Amino acid sequence: MPNMRDNAGGVELLRRHLPSGGNRFRLGGGAPGIERLEAALVGEAFSPHRHDTYAVGITLAGVQTFRYRGERRHCLPGEWHVLHPDELHDGAAGTEDGFGYRIIYLDPVLVRDALGGGPLPFVADPVIHAVPSHLAGFLTNIDEPLDDVEAAETATAIADVLRTHAAPSRRRPVALDMTAVRRVRALLSDDPTTRHRAEELEIVAGLDRWSVARQFRAAFGTSPTRFRTMRQLDMARRLIRTGRRLSDVAVMAGFADQAHLTRMFKRAYGLTPAAWATAVGTAHGHRLIRRS
């Protein structure tokens, strides 16, 4: 990784690559349940939004600021941030110079598997000043895909960091039938464009609808409805990258229309589909932050 504490040099890199108010994303290689991304942002950034994954990233240059659980946070170069699934947050540069970061989005089911079950860890303070040195290695060469061994190593490293920094839970654990909720998850994943009735989820799970809703959130950090919407948005992002018109993307991904797609997209990613497409489309061929 670059010398992440050389903030002046990092800011200069951002200035060279970005016009005022510009955003650039570079999507890295990943694996099932793991996405990696590099970003540089100047000016207005992300509006309030929620992921259905853990988001674990490192600030490379500039000052990253975000509101999380009612407080304004600042993440400096070399510091990590950890966001829990379904927690509302925004994101912006703390100075006019902009900021750059790399991040891993990790499916909660991988965290649960890596920890051998139990409640999903919740890290109350999202800014972490020190993590094991090997964790940064998973964000060094992000263009390379992860094989199954590397994916397991990545998930395990992040799960261990989450467990180390997790706040003690005062809540009574929800009793889980993981086989049942995994069947519901698989149904929603297989065809996210289909809106299933509660009765169908009950049949698949062998549980009543209240237990499905409660156990699904405890197991995966989000609701069945939001999980399905996020899989629709995954489909929409893939279609957008092929250059299809947004109106066509909306229909193909199962949204009512383009306006519906735009609302859901912005709630999930903090940007409109058009802004996201511009940021991703112009990122290829650029190296926003100096690569190792």
Describe this protein with a few key phrases.
10 helices, 292 residues, Jelly Rolls, Arc Repressor Mutant, subunit A, 4-stranded antiparallel beta sheet, 6-stranded antiparallel beta sheet, 2 domains, globular, disordered C terminus, alpha+beta
Question: How would you describe this structure to a colleague?
Answer:
This protein is α+β, with helices and mostly antiparallel strands and 292 residues long. Helix content is 39%, strand content 19%. The chain has 10 helices and 10 strands. The strands form 2 sheets. The chain has a 6-stranded antiparallel sheet with strand order 1-2-9-4-7-10. A 4-stranded antiparallel sheet has the order 3-8-5-6. Helix 2 (108-114) packs across helix 3, helix 7 crosses helix 9 (258-269) and helix 8 (246-252) packs across helix 9. Mean pLDDT is 88; it is low at 1-11, 13-20 and 282-292.
